[in-house]
Amino acid sequence: MERKVTALRQVCSVTRPDKKKLQLLLQGAVMVTVNAGPLEYANVFLRATSAHPTKHVQRLKEIYKDFSRWCGQALEINGRLILEDQLPLQQSMERDYREMCSKLESMIGPFDQAPEGEAVPKTVDLAEKSAPPVLRNRGSAKAQGKA
Question: Packing angle between helix 19-30 and helix 87-108, nearest 10 degrees?
């Protein structure tokens, strides 16, 4: 999980993110058909009846919090980079991200605060946005000369 967080952090932290790499990371992190891996790890190691040492469980909870924050940041960046033909994929990833966060929060509690001293983005509440990022950032068709 730490490697997934590191990969997301690296792709999100550059001035011009690689869209293909970003999308591959996102799909592997939040898509329902793929993210059974991260969620299954959480189910095994973070459930209340876990027999694993408390310090390891606490560390894994922090890793999952970082993971969810960076997934949210990556989704915001991807929303700014995509064209309208990729909007259905973006919407699907946003929906799956919200579902993943809901499941993780039930296991580890809320994760809206970054660890002290770390430059980790806050979890993105994509449900509060009035329009998908791709539509907010494109402007009207008339302004783009398409009307």
Answer: 40
